[in-house]
Specification:
The protein is of the alpha+beta class. It has a domain of 52 residues: Alpha-Beta Plaits (2-Layer Sandwich), CATH 3.30.70.100. It has three helices and five strands; from the N terminus they run H-E-H-E-E-H-E-E. A hairpin with a 5-residue loop joins strand 2 and strand 3. It is globular and about 35 Å long. It starts with a helix and ends with a strand. The relative contact order is 0.30.
Length: 102
C-alpha cells in the first residue's frame, strides 16, 4: 500500500531543543549532527553565548523523539544538566540538511 505524501508529511514536525551543562567544547554539536543525519532529520545545531547548545530539527515525529533522547544524553565527554524540548510544531521545510552553525 502506498502512503499518500500529504499523509506522510502530516506526521512530520519541528522541535526546538535547548541543552544546558558541559555541552560546549566536548563535541556536542558534531554528536548532534551525526544523530540527526542518521535519523534523516534536517535543521541545525549551534552554541549559544551563555554556554548552552540550541538545536532545531525537522522530520518524522518518531525520529524526533529518538533524537531528543540522544541529545538529552549527549556524547561521552558532555554533562547534560537540562534538556528542554519544545512541543512539536508543524515543520517549515526551510532546511535541506542538518548544519552546524557558528
Amino acid at each position: 500500500m502506498e502512503v499518500d505524501d500529504s499523509q506522510e508529511r502530516q506526521q512530520w514536525a519541528q522541535v526546538h531543543v535547548r541543552v544546558d551543562g558541559r555541552v560546549q567544547g566536548v563535541g556536542f554539536r558534531w554528536f548532534t549532527r551525526e544523530r540527526a543525519l542518521t535519523l534523516g532529520l534536517t535543521g541545525y545545531v549551534r552554541n549559544l553565548p551563555d554556554g548552552a547548545v540550541e538545536t532545531v530539527a525537522e522530520g518524522p515525529t518518531a525520529a524526533l523523539d529518538e533524537f531528543v533522547s540522544h541529545v538529552h544524553h549527549g556524547p561521552p565527554m558532555s554533562r547534560v544538566l537540562s534538556c528542554q524540548a519544545s512541543t512539536p510544531v508543524p515543520p517549515t521545510g526551510e532546511y535541506d540538511d542538518f548544519d552546524i552553525r557558528h
